[in-house]
Amino acid sequence: MFGLFKSVFKLQFLFVIVAILAGVYHTEVKQFLRRYTDSYLDQAGGSDEIPVAFQTGDEALFTAAELETFNGEEGRPLYLALLGSVFDVSRGIKHYGAGCSYNFFVGRDASVSFISGEFENYDPKVADDVLTLKPDDLIGLAGWRDFYQKDYIYKGKLIGRFYNEKGDLTAYHHKYLALLEQAQDAKKEAEELRNRYPGCNIEWSEAKGTRVWCTNTSGDGKTRSSSGYPRKLYSRGNKNFQCACVPESELDEINAGEKAAHGDVMLKPYDNCQPRALECFYRV
Ligand code: HEM
């Protein structure tokens, strides 16, 4: 009985010592655990299954100078940042290692170069200034971010344009997200429009001018049940028109006058073309 009491006491004493040591060396312990789990995930090839949101409690904040040191030298890992998020790309060493094609991206946030392909003229002041990019490029860049999130290990945030010293989103970051959402909405709207009003076939000849006509695969090449009828489609802020194939059900409305069809899009009949003609001719 006394023996059992002694071993329980010893065990408790051991726990107290371990707890004290863990408290004093908590940073080292954390780093050790992190390194251990990272290498485990690497071996298991499973890091891509960990959503970033799960790691937010343990993500690091990097200054630009700190990030620069993760350059693969002296056994250090290879990190890069994209849109202010830091990723460990060590296992892509064949792309990112010294002398490899994409080593330029290591140790910095050069988000703009993912779109421009400019790896030579590096100006750190604007290398991550993405608000100047076109809407489609913002979508492309978001695709790169998804790629790193899926294929590499998320490490934390870079203090700078996208995150402040506390790791909170900056006003710039909010602006970027708003522009990205706008770009995605516009893309979705354009896709919906293309589905609703597929493009026409088009040809030009000296004798007849421009001929437009619809078939049940014109536009996107996908087969649909009916060919539709050619109409002029004007997009927002654009005085030029494209030819769109409009379904039978919408013809009367369009023929009756101008019609706002989808958002700010306008559909009009071609001049000198019968309401149910399958082809129309015009000269500009
Ligand atoms: C804007 C220009 C470009 C950027 C930003 C870019 C970026 C990248 C990056 C970051 C990777 C590594 C992906 C990974 O971690 O797995 C990569 C891979 C690759 N890139 Fe590019 N790239 C560009 C243009 C090109 C061009 C023009 C070509 C071809 C002529 C090309 C061919 C490749 C190939 C073949 C790989 C895969 C290599 C492999 O898996 O072994 N890239 N690219």
From TrEMBL:
Gene3D superfamilies: Cytochrome b5-like heme/steroid binding domain
Transmembrane segments: 7-25
InterPro entries given in the database record: Cyt_B5-like_heme/steroid-bd, Cyt_B5-like_heme/steroid_sf, MAPR/NEUFC/NENF-like
One cellular-component annotation, GO: membrane
Coiled-coil residue windows: 173-203
One Pfam family matching this protein: Cyt-b5
Keyword Coiled coil tagged: yes
Annotated ranges, domain Cytochrome b5 heme-binding: 62-159
Keywords per UniProt: Coiled coil, Membrane, Transmembrane, Transmembrane helix
Sequence similarity: Belongs to the cytochrome b5 family. MAPR subfamily.
Protein name, entry field: Cytochrome b5 heme-binding domain-containing protein
Organism in which the protein naturally occurs: Drosophila ananassae
Organismal lineage: Eukaryota, Metazoa, Ecdysozoa, Arthropoda, Hexapoda
